[in-house]
Amino acid sequence: MKKSLRIRRLVGEELNEGNFTMSSPAVIEFTNFPGGPETFELLIKFCYGINFEMTTLNVANLRCAAEFLEMIDEHGEENIITHTETFLSEIVFRSLDKTVEVLHSCEHVLSMAEEVKLVNRCIDVIASKIYHEQQKLSNRLQAEGNHSIPWNYNSTHLRELQSAILPTPNWNQDEDSTPVPHTINRRVKVDWWAEKLSLLRIDLYQRVFTAMKASGVRAESLAGSLMKYAESSLKHLHGQGNQGASVMMSAPFTTAIRLKTKHHLDINFGHNHKTIQQHEQRNVLETIISLLPTENNLFPISFLLSLLRDAIALDTTVACQLDLERRIGLQLERVTANDLLIPTLPSDTDDAMYDVDLVQRVLVNYLQQDENFKNEHNFSLNSDSDENGISLNYQKGIRKVTEVIVQYLAEIAADANLRAAKFAAIAEKLPSHFRAMDDGLYRAIDIFLKAHPYLTDVEKRKVCKLLDCQKLSREACFHAAQNERLPVEMLVKVLYCEQMRIRNALVEDESPHQEGSYNYGGYSLNKISNTGSPRMDTLSRLRQKNKFLKEEVAKLQVHIYQLLI
């Protein structure tokens, strides 16, 4: 009793009130005692001189309980507060591992740990040690003559310099591809300490992340830490088992709910367990999204798509979903058609199988980025640009996006509940001048018309007007001319384009400068083939080919005439 000012004061009050007798001793009851009965038992051992082990798992409880009982040195030489502070400064705060473990244990006694500033001290130590670890690694590499930090750098002499690959292959590679290091596909880097931080509750992790960012930790490492934390805390949403389903469902789960109820009064303990868990999952996901670094192209596209699917499933705020859509749009050229097949929620009023509106918004974000690119560069000519001043990388990216969206249209076209207006809305966004061939788009339109036999003529024309018949191959033109699902106007366009193609071929055949001849000084020199055939043999073969094409066009004309009748 002499080591605790609080117990001494409470006993004195009982004596003054006369409630304390030998036959009826007073009972002092502590509600919400920090650390519970186990910690109180350790304090009793300390008071009676019984040895016990102080560890990173109980030091936070002991420090908070000692503060609660006011066990300071003025009421006992080298009291428990002094012992815990010495243990923290000389053992815990010298190790990043141990500091994270102590911070994790503070979740059970958070209010008292905040009062003694133990949480803030742990966070500051973690952020400082991670920053200085990176500085140490950078200096060491510079001394060795390597000015860049490799993605898989490992040191057998210094554990703090270790790094690891995130064990989530579907976030960084396709199913059929070989594993690719993070910094080859993305600049994100997952350090060894990210595994430790993933044990923290979301509110504490958010504060650690903010402190690391403020101290100057690299954005690549911050992104890797976020990826690891998302993998750990949201893994139950990805079908990775129920045991230890999430950080929130562990021991501090109840505390996290109490913290949330201060700001979210709509949550109460009368809800079933599943509803409470969904609220916690949503809170974790929204916090992760809010912490995403602002740097573009930092995360693998598959990771952002995974977050977006979870955000839709958990019904997060519109701002969170729009932020993810914007980030995905910035690197849309890295997605595949299957990545964009995001199912609609059962509660949606739209009966379509896939969320087409979401893909349209992502595509708009990407095209807006390209528009900004063109405005900034003003189509200036340079070594990496074509004659129109458009960056070759820009052209490659937008062509890739166009191909992916065309494939996506073919995938969703078979959905009988997909409306023609939504199908056409996405196709209209595709820049036609970056589509070399329209065979893929024709295939998607044909699948859509086949799956929607009851479309009106107006809807058919709206869908088919997106097709450029001049960009159809000869095989596609032949198929389209016999396709009864196409409106008559489209059949006429196909026939006209085929006629123009034959006409242009005839003009080229009759041109004086043909393949097979050279022009030198105004004189035409015929090229003799390897078999010694003269130029007239080549012209004869071309005329035979043109005759065959004319016969096919005549057949198409007869077919169109029959349809018009």
From TrEMBL:
Pathway: Protein modification; protein ubiquitination. It comes from the Eukaryota. Residues 191-501 form the NPH3 domain. Keywords: Ubl conjugation pathway. The keyword Signal does not apply. It holds the Pfam family NPH3. PANTHER family: OS12G0117600 PROTEIN. This is NPH3 domain-containing protein.
